Every structure is written in C-alpha cells, then in structure tokens.
Description:
The chain is mainly beta.
Amino acid sequence: MLNRxxxxxxxxxxxxxxxxxxxxxxxxxxxxxxxxxxxxxxxKETDFIDVVAWRGTAEFVSKYFSKGRMAVVEGRLQIRDxxxxxxxxxxxAEVVADNVYFGDSKRDSGGEYGASYGASPAGGVxxxxxxxxxxxxxxxxxxxxxxxxxxxxxxxxxF
Length: 159
C-alpha cells in the first residue's frame, strides 16, 4: 500500500512546539494550499491543511518557519476519529510530515535557501542543504556545486 502526500503552501500561523510526557517534540501548523483551478465564479480556492511534525522535524519547523512562510511538506495522510465535548463522533485528516522544505528563497523570507530537515524511515534525522553554490547537495554528494549564482546586475542569461 502507498500513502504519500506532497503539499506546498504558506503557513497560516506560527508553528506550535510542544512536548509529550516523555519529552518527544511535536509541532502542529496549517498550510494554505491554492488549488490549481478556479471556481465557477472565477476565483482561486484555497484548502487549509493541518500538518503535524515529530522529533527533529518538529524542532526544525518551529525554529525556522513562521506565519506566511512558504513550505513544502512530504509525508503521509492520517485520518483520526475522536469525540468532541458534546459526545459527538468527529473525524479529521492531517498530514504527518516526514520532511519539510523551504518553498521560498532566502531573499523572499530571510531563511536558509533550499534547506530541509526530516526524519528518515530508519529513525535518523538527516539535514540536507542544496543551495546554489553550496558544497553539499541535497543528494548528499560532496564537492563543488555544478551551479553558479547569477547576480541581478548581469543582465543576460548565460545561454
């Protein structure tokens, strides 16, 4: 079976970092994700998707992300059944994040361009930095990058 989801949107509020009784970090946030099509009235519609991240990913998100920041989340969809205060049965869907990436550039938001942090299936917590001009790529290879950063004053494309 396969349960994978990738979403990209802007945080609707600052992430809330909490800890379980055993000290495990958990953070929750919501992404505003625009639909690819317009409604019959001609307006773009937006879905507000709840996301939860655990352990190192939770700490990373709470440290580097804030309201309005663009994020790309990889994870799985989880459906939870619960009972409200009035005793009614409720159901909610949320994305459990495995990896979270910056979806905007450093210039747009002042963060680390291209950085990501997530928990691997084996339980490790790798960080990958794939910024243009960096010495490490997201694929984990060392050495110089094949990409050169082009300044705005250059005026012409290099091809």
